[in-house]
Amino acid sequence: MIRVLLADDQDLVRAGIRLVLKHADDIEVVAEASDGPEAARLAGRHRVDVAMLDIQMRGTEDGLEAAERIAATAPSVRVVMLTTFGEHTYVARALKAGAMGFLLKDSTPQELIQAVRRVATGAPVVSPPITRHLIDHYLGSGEPPADPRLGRIAGLTDRERDVLAMVGTGASNAEIGKRLHLGEGTVKAYVSRMLTKLGCANRVQAALLAHDARLSRGTR
């Protein structure tokens, strides 16, 4: 059973997510919090597997600070950040805090359930619109930061480079498979190997790296 903590300062949002997760027989919501400090306390107390945190919560700490505290006090907990479209700055900070999932609050029920399952196994999950928005932001800045992992791209196979380029557009595994004529399971395997070779924790980091290397231009 996957034990989940929900943290959001809006009761209605928590109730909605709880209702969605209740339909999964392998997921149990064991704790709820309305602010960051409470979320950090409950994460360890209830032996939580996955913490779903709203990025912006009222109070002395927001979801980002809660994620940082959870990473320090309960490192086995997998953190998923719940965001609204356009919060690219917050997502970048959450990446540094070790968050493994980034979902829009208007994700479908099935996307929420699958995200919890995947993150519980240690697999990162990022909503494609969030990836695309981050990419657009960094492209618009005109000065993407240099990344020491750029040299590792040379160690990728041609197909892994193709997959990385597609990840750089924010494409989902299904979209990559359709474009490259690959099965979705095969795409997942390529993505996993590519992330390992590049030393990237998740698809967002890989997508930004693809843009820094100019791999994704012309793939849209």
Describe this structure in words.
The protein has 220 residues and is an alpha/beta fold. It has two domains: 2-126, 3-Layer(aba) Sandwich (Rossmann fold); 144-212, Winged helix-like DNA-binding domain superfamily/Winged helix DNA-binding domain (Arc Repressor Mutant, subunit A). It is 50% helix and 14% strand. The protein is built from ten helices and six strands; from the N terminus they run βαβαβαβαβαβααααα. The chain has a six-stranded parallel β-sheet with strand order 2-1-3-4-5-6, with helices on both faces. Helix 5 links the parallel strand 5 (101-104) and strand 6. Helix 2 (36-45) runs parallel beside helix 3 (63-73) and helix 7 packs across helix 10 (203-212). The chain is globular and about 45 Å long. The relative contact order is 0.11. It comes from Streptomyces showdoensis. The modification 4-aspartylphosphate is found at residue 54. InterPro entries: CheY-like_superfamily (IPR011006), NreC/VraR/RcsB-like_REC (IPR058245), Sig_transdc_resp-reg_C-effctor (IPR016032), Sig_transdc_resp-reg_receiver (IPR001789), Tscrpt_reg_LuxR_C (IPR000792), WalR-like (IPR039420). Keywords: DNA-binding, Phosphoprotein, Transcription, Transcription regulation. Residues 3-120 form the Response regulatory domain.
Name the descriptors.
220 residues; Rossmann fold; Arc Repressor Mutant, subunit A; alpha/beta
Q: Rounded to an integer, what's the Rg over CA atoms?
A: 17 Å
CATH class of the largest domain: Alpha Beta
CATH superfamily of the largest domain: Response regulator
- Topology as H/E string? EHEHEHEHEHEHHHHH
Number of strands: 6
Euclidean distance between termini CA atoms = 40 Å
Whole-number mean pLDDT: 83
Main structural class: alpha/beta
